[in-house]
Specification:
Shape: globular
Low-confidence stretches: none
Largest sheet: 8 strands, parallel
Strand order of the largest sheet: 1-9-8-6-5-4-3-2
Strand content: 5-15%
Length: about 325
């Protein structure tokens, strides 16, 4: 399958693996790249030294393109970007802040720049500044989210830009990929689907909670305060949302939420931590190797796309 994204990154399939804090490491990223997509190492909560080690480890596990994600609200973002420039990965995705100041150093190092944007305004801004592609991520995604759905972003953004567009948020199978491609996207990014991959380092208790989840188990904490984070319902989300709706100070909410991602994803406390997974939960029922996931997604997408002309009869 050829799209502007596959040509830009020199990959077989128009499929990026989302950057999931604490679990998107070299092992998972390299497996996705080896399967024909493009894996991404997540640096959220990590040090510059860890980032360098994971990039180097990924290079021993794959000779295919892979990327690194930079969380722009991280206090050590400059150090991490410097390491990425020195190690020269294929591309970088950037979100949760202003990416423009990093375009020049990344491009000077020969690295493609792919910001994550939540609106038409920002999509146009990063395109004008020289972004190589963009990810538009809807509020169906796990983790930090915006206010627009994936469908709305596809509808609003794609006609307004000419650079490659990657759709994300709630896409976990080939049907979702086909829908995004038919809407005009050049590829998709999937995070939640790879959380229960065999190569993912997610804690087994968190994996089991995702597999057991039903479609209504997804909640977004902090939405009324403009800092929404999506994950699975549990004791933590119930406590947080009760405080949120009662008007508790933001400082109290921030203190309660700090460290909850690592608590669930790494330590396995799925009641007091937050399993940051997206809304499309019911297809996530089985742990499989990354290659099987990628091949299944692509086969489903091709099957759905091949049936599209029948709608015109």
């Amino acid at each position: 399958m050829k799209t502007k994204l596959t040509e830009l990154l020199d990959i077989k399939y128009p499929l990026l693996q989302g950057a999931m804090a604490w679990v998107s490491e070299a092992n998972l990223a390299s497996a996705v790249s080896n399967a024909g997509g493009a894996g991404i190492i997540a640096t959220g909560g990590r040090s510059a030294e860890w980032t360098r080690d994971e990039i180097r480890r990924a290079k021993t596990l794959t000779d295919k393109p892979f990327g690194v994600n930079v969380v722009l609200m991280a206090p050590n973002r400059d150090e991490i970007v410097s390491v990425i420039c020195e190690e020269k990965v294929a591309f970088v995705t950037l979100g949760a802040g202003n990416p423009l100041v990093y375009f020049d150093p990344l491009h000077a190092a020969g690295i493609k720049v792919i910001p994550v944007v939540p609106s038409v305004k920002l999509a146009k801004r990063v395109e004008a500044a020289g972004a190589d592609a963009i990810v538009i991520e809807g509020m169906e995604a796990g983790g930090h989210i915006g206010t627009l759905s994936t469908m709305a972003l596809l509808t609003n953004v794609i006609p307004e830009v000419s650079l490659p567009v990657v759709a994300a948020g709630g896409i976990v199978d080939g049907r979702g990929m086909a829908a995004a491609l038919l809407m005009g996207a050049d590829g998709v990014q999937m995070g939640s689907r790879f959380m229960i991959a065999a190569e993912c380092g997610l804690h087994p208790k968190a994996t089991a909670r995702i597999i057991q989840a039903v479609d209504t188990d997804s909640v977004a904490t902090g939405f009324s305060r403009g800092h929404a984070v999506r994950g699975l319902k549990n004791e933590f989300t119930a406590k947080f949302m009760a405080l949120e709706t009662s008007g508790a100070p933001q400082k109290e909410l921030d203190s309660l939420a700090t460290g909850t991602s690592r608590l669930a994803m790494v330590e396995g406390d799925v009641e007091n931590g937050l399993v940051q997974v997206g809304q499309s939960l019911t297809p996530l029922r089985e742990v499989k190797p990354v290659r099987d996931i990628v091949e299944t997604v692509m086969a489903e997408a091709v099957q759905v796309l091949s049936r599209a002309p029948e709608l015109l009869r």
